[in-house]
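Report of the visiting student (M.T.), summer placement. My assignment was to run the structure pipeline on a short list of targets and document each run. The first record concerns L-aspartate oxidase.
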Amino acid sequence: MTRRVTDFIVVGSGIAGLMTALSLGKSGQVIVLTKAKEEQSNSYRAQGGIAAAVGEGDSPELHRQDTLRTGVDLCDPKSVDILVQMAPETIRLLTKWGTRFDREGDKWALGREGSHSVSRILHVSGDATGAGITSALLKQLSGHPQIELVTHTMVADLIVHEGACRGVITVDEGKGPVIYLARKGVVLATGGCGQIYRYTTNDLVSTGDGFAMAHRAGAALIDMEFVQFHPTALAVEQNPMVLVSEAVRGEGAVLVNEQGELFMARYHEWKDLAPRDVVSRAIYSEMQAGRRVYLDAQVIGSRFEERFPKIYRYCRMHGIDPAHDLIPVTPAAHFIMGGIQTDLFGRTTLPRLFACGEVACTGVHGANRLASNSLLEGAVFAQRVAAKLSSYADQSVDVPEPVYPSLCRDKQIEETWKKEIRQIMWDAAGIVRTSEGLLTGISRIKELQNQIPSGFIECHNMLITAQMIMNAALWRRESRGGHYRHDFPETIPEWSKKHNVI
Ligand SMILES: Cc1cc2nc3c(=O)[nH]c(=O)nc-3n(C[C@H](O)[C@H](O)[C@H](O)COP(=O)(O)OP(=O)(O)OC[C@H]3O[C@@H](n4cnc5c(N)ncnc54)[C@H](O)[C@@H]3O)c2cc1C
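After the run finished, the structure tokens were exported:
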């Protein structure tokens, strides 16, 4: 098997992976491995923006309060402090590395999103924030003397030897497996797992690989029951679904049901800008009662095209003119708050393995993520991961050859399995959960684990991630943030001290 040795290995080319690589680039050789094209990530798809207290009348303290409140008593206050305090300097760093945030005259143009008490969302080209940031970072990275980006290369597993992570094993189309070994350590920045749900805004690459690999390697995961469902995906069946950013409601658009009722007033005092879980469940209830739901953005009128060019284009592709028509919307799996347990420097419980971005659980999101805090989390904690990891002494990379099953490549069969997993998860561990539904889901996932050949690596990663989410959801017998149990609908104060560690 081919072996390559470097100082640092970073898995993933979203904001977390790119920022980590650039921050490590001054300390040694970095190899970034990513399973598709370099820009294929949820980071690239991000629309609304990135939160930071940079506006007049705003402060890290206000940002902190909004984050903690939205996380429903489950955030780690120390992580949140780091996030909000480092946010303004992180915006300066992103700007230095080429991101051109939108401006209004000599000030930042700041948008408003749900649960934020003030306007604090920086954005790029209106609703193309993720593309703006990741393209700038990729440009910084290209030609960097210390960083090599290897695309279309899937990391299949971590290599653990004598109690530490030494590297990774990859598989890719056409070539055999390759072993990459790291003198300092490995950073997982593989993003989320939305693809395990039937309806999702997440990119096709988001199959939960990082969670599954960390679990197989023996690292701890935490808070996996907390999945965020975005209230407003465009209600057109496609995978991934098109997101209609919360910033659209921030600009005054409102939700209406097919009877023309502004129904959010019945569900929350903050109406259309209530926390995401509340809005998602409200829409779900309306739909369960047989009423379709729409976003009425006519108040934005002809400004829509300029402010939200990307969403506008997608709507037009489906024959909807947001300036005059109602936009049909539906909730979809969007983000996972739980993940690989890390400390304040991204260290996991497995020595020499770090995690950063959506795959990590730093504790900043608690039971529910505040809008636009996830790009920020990736960018902030990447700097801390790099600072810690670069101080490590070299480890031995003399490891025995790992055994690995050969990859199954039948895309059609793979797609059939994936569809089945997605439907099980949507039914059993979606917006509203019950113990009966979860138990059924868990037993169906077990059956599939026995049925699907081990060479379908992504399917097995999806199954492991699904199992962790459902077991954690079954364990938490209350409702909190993104986790709603129909059989335990109350938020119970004692559960705010409890975390499910896998
Ligand atoms: C449509 C959409 C809009 C969003 N809008 C916003 C927003 O406005 N603001 C905000 O803060 N957040 C937003 N989010 C959430 C946010 O985009 C993500 O949480 C964040 O970008 C995650 O960054 P990441 O670097 O951790 O992961 P990602 O950006 O998802 O990157 C993961 C990378 O890992 C790679 N990878 C995965 N598995 C493997 C493997 N086995 N081997 C090799 N490579 C692998 C992928 O190919 C990818 O390059 C949005 C999400 C979506 C889906």
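The mean pLDDT is 95. Residues 126 and 307 are 5 Å apart (CA to CA). I thank the supervising group for their guidance throughout the placement.
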